[in-house]
Amino acid sequence: MKYATHRSELARFVACAALVAGGCADDHEADDDGHTEAGHPALTWDELALGCSVMGEGEQAHVMCNHGHALNLRNENLWERWRLLQSKGIVQPNEAQLMHGGQSHDPLPPPLTPTLRARLGERVRIRAASYGPQFHTFHVHGHLWKDGTKAADTKTLGPAEVYDLAEFHAGAGIDDPTERAGVGDWMYHCHVETHAVTGMWGIFRVLPAPGAKEQPVGDDAPNAAGRFAHEVPPPLGGPGQKLTVHVVAAEVPLVVARSFVPATGKLVDVVRKARLYIPMPDEASWQAATAADLTARFAAGEKSTHSAWILSLRKGTEVTVKLRNLMPDVPASLHPHGVAYKVESDGTMEVSMAMPGGKPTVSTWTADTVGTWPLHDHARQVENIGRGLFSAIVVKDDAEIAAIQRDYLVIFHDYDMDWMMGSATPIGGGH
To answer: Using CA atoms, how far apart are residues 195 and 138, in angstroms rounded to an integer?
Structure first.
């Protein structure tokens, strides 16, 4: 199936960056010392590809490269895709060529970042959460939602901030399923341009409505349960119900980015040991889980398909969460937002820290407030969150469950560049 791709300002940014080292930060030409006429250091291509930015003014200006940008722990750097297309003879790739991929005639693979799917007219909710020290702006093309009484298509998020009011009909209106934008690929991204160009973008794909002549196939087809990849899982529990959830914290290999290799003319996967919360189906598998077994499981294929854990609950559920730490060198914990709990279940007290080789922790929370809530490590917060030890709690009531047909969570993540470059002991510097 062929989809139309809609352009934005990113094509201008990438095209401008291809002409002048330092991208489109200003129009000054760099001198032999790497400084512009205004006294600012120019970004090299390597720095731009790593998501670096110029900090400060004048002679105090310097290049800072300690964070990269990803969605759901996946980075899709447009510069790497640009380099591959140029090697194929496409001298000035446009945005459609940069974003598209995956079909037999395409020189590019589909993006690593999540492709969110819905059928034309379906009611969709996209939740956006931000982990890291930087601000991000969630924007989806072609669609509007209500923010209070006003229509909106953009929302700024600070660190650990969540926004879950992006609700609309796919390819249609805010409240009316009549076609407005239509079938096709619509970019969603951080609207900080350097963040988007260096990895923080993905595709929201509107598929034909049920009964249309042309129907989706392959990855665009829903599974046997009628669900697409990356959807928020159905909520567990219910008012007055108690349940137990088992999760481990582990270091496992994960595909986090792609890099263009001129010698082979291909984009190759960048695999790093991410620190993840991994849910287990029952007590027995939780007790039996080992770091070696999980590493083998991910190495065998899950490193390319894993999505961040989402604890999806019905309002009124009391959940007991058991956490084992399988990481050999660092402590781990679970700190929840938005749910009710006693202080010993906060994830910051000694009793709720899972030490390497130590006892599991047991936390009890009550899902008393509808919403999307951060859930993350608080044992070694900067390092662990920078390498992926984060999740989210989604609390729903019956009205929301009945109203929403497609539900997604997109996590904006600033990762530690030392880890991205392969350091076993990230330090968060990178200047």
So the answer is: 11
Nearest-angstrom CA–CA distance, 427 and 114: 28
Neighbours of 398 (CB within 10 A): 12
Whether 372 maps to a domain, the answer reads: yes
Q: Which residue, among 103, 170, 120, has the nearest Cα to 141 in the 3D structure? A: 170
For residue 14, the model assigns a pLDDT of 54
Torsional class of 71: left (φ above 0), alpha (ψ -120 to 50), beta (otherwise): beta
For the chain, give the mean pLDDT: 86
pLDDT digits (tens, 9 = 90+) for 18-33: 433 334 433 334 444 4
Residue 172 pLDDT more than 70? yes
Number of domains in the chain: 2
Q: What is d(CA 122, CA 384) in angstroms, rounded to the nearest whole number?
A: 37
d(CA 140, CA 367): 29
Which CATH number is 379's domain given?
A: 2.60.40.420
Measured distance CA(406)–CA(152) in Å, rounded: 19
Alpha helices per DSSP H over 36-192: 45-49, 78-87, 95-99
Per-residue pLDDT at 287 exceeds 50: yes
The token pair at 198 is 């260096």
Q: What pLDDT is stored for residue 132 in this prediction?
A: 85
Domain annotation covers residue 369: yes
Mean of pLDDT values over 112-140? 95
Residue pointed to by tokens 């290799």: 261
